[in-house]
Amino acid sequence: MGTADAASKDVTVRLAERKPIVVFVLGGPGSGKGTQCANIVQHFGYTHLSAGDLLRAECNSGSENGTMIQNMMNEGKIVPSEVTIELLQKAMLESGNNKFLIDGFPRNEENRAAFEAVTKIEPEFVLFFNCPQEEMERRILNRNQGREDDNIETIRKRFKVFEESSLPVIEYYKARGKVREIDAAKSIEEVFDALKVIFTTTVGKVVTT
Ligand SMILES: Nc1ncnc2c1ncn2[C@@H]1O[C@H](COP(=O)(O)OP(=O)(O)O)[C@@H](O)[C@H]1O
Ligand SMILES: Nc1ccn([C@@H]2O[C@H](COP(=O)(O)OP(=O)(O)O)[C@@H](O)[C@H]2O)c(=O)n1
Ligand SMILES: [Mg+2]
Question: Is residue 85 in some structural domain?
Answer without folding.
Answer: yes
